[in-house]
Sequence to fold (326 residues):
Amino acid sequence: MNHQRVRQALAAPRRLRTTEFVFWLATIAAYVLLPERSLLLNETAILGLFALSLDLVLGIAGIVSLGHAAFFGLGAYTAGLVGKIGLTEPVLGLLVAGTAAGVLGFATSFLVLRGSDLTRLMVTLSVSLVMLELANRLTSLTGGADGLQGIVIGAVLGTFEFDMFGRVAVAYSLTVLFLAFLLARWLLHTPFGLAVRAIAANPLRSAAIGIPNNRRLVGIYTIAAVVAGLAGALLAQTTQFVSLDVLAFHRSAEVMLVLVIGGTGYLYGGLVGAVLFKLLQDQLSDLTPQYWQFWLGLIFVALVVVGRDRVFGAPQALWRRIRSAA
Fold:
């Protein structure tokens, strides 16, 4: 009887709650009702997927990173190269890109797990800078500063052709985002995910009760790298162009800001933060095209001074309260 109650308690959080259905229905409504904003919606979906990957590392596992763009950029270049050599099916390119990013994540995870948070910041940043310089040097492969051109992307699953208005691109990106979110949500409620949370909360205690800390952290870091690679692949496939910008430091900083806005540790923070960040960026660039970055930076400085919890704490608390009562 007790075992049955435990299984029911563990299974309950895996089900989507009413408020979560509302969130995804609102996303579908935006796709249907705002066709003129397809490009913005596509960028938001890709940024949300990228932020979701960082949340797995930072919010769930407690691993700080300033070089998450390394996996995003590798995914973008891999998908672009796959399309350039003639393998134009987007889903195939997406899988190859995610695999490549996962291999890089696994290979670098052993370096990242060494030392303190400051060491991890430096190591992740160094990996990203090395990847940027490699992309810049290997001009015959990546195009260098001119970017990777000549990318050809076919119809999704051989049926849905990308159109100039971005409608298919948005549907494609949102579908990948939703599936990745469901996978991440399910993963966090498995013994693996619960162990990662335990390690983030108290690594000494988790080791004392027999949890293999390093193996679990290597696993979550690799999974997060795969998700980041998928986000980069989506960008490459929906724009059919890849430049050094995908590996630049501002990519890592931008996704970190998204999590600062939305909050860490509950997956929806990256999605909500991506929506707010892109809306701010879009509105400010319309109002002051030359100085929108100044105003955006000023808002973030004010956010830090006032305190994110004071600004977004009440909505997040209300969200959690409604979700727990649903």
